[in-house]
Amino acid sequence: MSVLSSLARLEAAATGRAQPVATVRHCHLAGAPLVMIPLKLAGEAAAPLAVMLGRDRAEPALLVVPQPRNRDLRFAFAADLAKIVLEHIEASRGAAEALAPGKDGEERFRYTDAPQILLPNPGGVGFLARLGRSTRFRSTEGPYAVEPGVPALGRWLTWFADRHDHPGSSLLLTVTEALRLHWATGQSSLEDGNLAALMGWIDPPDGLDGAAAAARAEDPVVCPPAGPATDPTFDNEVLAPAIASYDETGHEQRVRTALEGQLAPTWDLMWRAVDLLRALPEGASVAKRWERDRDGFTWFHRNFDEGVPQPRRDTAVRAARRLHDLERAQDAYEAQRAFDDPLIMAEHRLNGQAFGGVVAGGDPARLDESGKRPKLRPHLLIATADPVRLDTGTAVCNAARPGLKGKIVDIGPDGVTVELTGGMGNRLTPAPGSVPELGDRVVFTSLTGGSFGPARFPDRESTPWTHGGPPPEYVPADEDAQEEWS
Amino acid sequence: MTETAPDLDRLRGGAPPRNHDARTIAALTANPGCARRGVMDAAGVDKDAVARQLGFPAPYGQSQFAITRGNVFEQQVKADGCAELLTLLRDRLGLTVPEARYDDLEEVAGSESREMRHARTRRLLARALETGEGTLFDHPLLRLEIGGRAVYLEPDVIAFQLAGRFHVVEIKSFAVIDGQAEPEQVAAAARQSAVYVLALRRLVAELGHDPARVAHEVFLVCPENFTNRPTATPVDVRPQLAVVERQLARLTRVDEIVAALPADLTFAPGAALPESVRAVQARYAPECMASCEMAFFCRDEARACGATGALGRSVRDDLGGVDSIAMALALAEGTLEPAAELAETAAQLRTATRLRREALGGLH
């Protein structure tokens, strides 16, 4: 949170309508995402109850476990789910485009597209991760054989949930998080976790303001929870008798109808949220981040057949590398968003890490002749009312065109003087249009677009003894395949 | 302290004080700045009933599936004199537990009187402290002083004695998957266990022994992975203990708050109830909704008067402690001249307003 987003919340509370906290969309939205709303049985770690899912809003599929404590029914559910998820993955990947060969001459590919999954909330991600954990070690042969799709589903779900932790990744998005990235409501972030209430503030039905729509959304009878937890009253009064009736008669229709009633309103909300997000113009760096997602997807997809299930716990090297990757991605994501969106850059201006104003003077043709050869070093005086918290000598760049670099040479009562050092062409006169002119509105910032470079980590085989030495190879064990799921 | 008791009885309107359990006591630590909650808890007011009377029932239902699962798991761990539990303590944690004895303190000769049960707990624990007799004491009934009055603790825990030291064993039905569990659930369990450790320590001290004979390390017993098999994890609850102790010490000072209230104030049902509740100041934060039955009433109140706290603690902090939304917006617009101590906040808000307008341009 920041003062800027808090102010947006105040405005939302005062006007009764959510307020924008972004001017562009900061996440990728696929043409045909797989929308999934999973429900789990209360009190259990990962007992699926139902999932409503599909790529087409007019035709959701509904998978149900009519007796969630029955292991065979669970695996049948997992197999059905696997079919839809794997189909989605194959249908979304596009063609493999060849890239320039890597440093050691190996062939490199990237799929032109990648599958996207949309969930209502982070709870759903946790549930999919657990479902992935409970299915990825299963064996397709031997005494505890399951359908081939089940362990494959487990590995894919684990991978998707993993990518969700990756800042800026859009492979697995939750709609509440995506909406909150773009709007501030007049309620607390805790209450924003309720998708229906959040949507009530952003897009209230006719005749209601945000507060009234959110209040209505808190009634679980009007707006059933978006999962994965179900409403306890629904469990006790509707679901339990329906499951009992299945146990007695073997007909699952009653359970299906009950769960469909719980899921359908959220299904509708999910697609309305997609519409709202789609209506926003896409940020300039979104395509670049999606390309990283496609890289990750391509690698996992092409190595899937030779691969083994992801380990229960990361090995030392893998954990260190993963943390490093996350830090780099976070760093790049924050900078990219600021450069893409003046409203995010405004946060940095408020913190004093950026400043904006009108070019009020300077010397656009200035040459530095102190060295052997003269260098083009224009000076710009930027009149700013922002609270600048940068020192002289700090390297800065132009927010609108990060290629234009410079450093702060003076901070005075009239504004900040920046000496431009690069991004103006190779001559002693600046390339046309490269130096802002008198009266232009500019923003300069100390943020840098490129993140810090990747670090090197030892191979798995050379894991140092301080970190436990090389970890053992994965060997599928019967114990994994037969692990209880109760 | 004792002279507050009649005042507190009056606040309840003559109703018997509500029983505390470790959950409600642990919840006392959640919002220490709230006078309303402090007074109501110290008096043992049935907040759930009050909230219902006020038209804001607390939606804390529990699914029967979760209840069943919890009960089945607990029964399984405790079956045959806690056979599974002992195996766990021996094999998983490598403790050398000699021949074990199991004492269930839930009922005393068919009577469930709390005094008798507490007396039996005292007797058995005293003997254990002196002679080392007994291993597992299920459902010990403990006492703790809350707001100047002793309350019995509804126990759902086992005291485990090993070599003259007691450990609290708490059975929970959330899963530990590959050595990890949901952090919020572990935190809640640790807070509750800390209350038991504290109550047990007070009892040991009353019996004339060193309270340090109750270990700060408790054992959480949870299902492992996706199975019903239990696993035990030691948890150090020292941080939670410190918080609970500080909060309880603070609660005894509710007499100061009570003394400042109208002399005839009562939370008994009736037309005057909303007014009585409003007479004691609340400090609502969205986190209250997780632990306090009054939360929905307080939220409504906070929203009605445009309190910034209703938007979240971080929002209030960002606003430098400005309590009212209207005032914060007036400062942001520059239509209100700030008092000296708010000058910095006001300047920041005005800059934020200008930057938002500039960035939103035509949009806004």
From TrEMBL, chain A:
Region feature (Disordered): 449-486
Protein's name according to its UniProt entry: Uncharacterized protein
Origin species: Actinomadura macrotermitis
Acidic residues bias: start-end ranges: 476-486
TrEMBL record, chain B:
Superkingdom as given in the UniProt entry: Bacteria
Chain positions covered by the region annotation Disordered: 1-20
Bias type Basic and acidic residues, positions: 7-20
Name assigned to this protein: Secreted protein
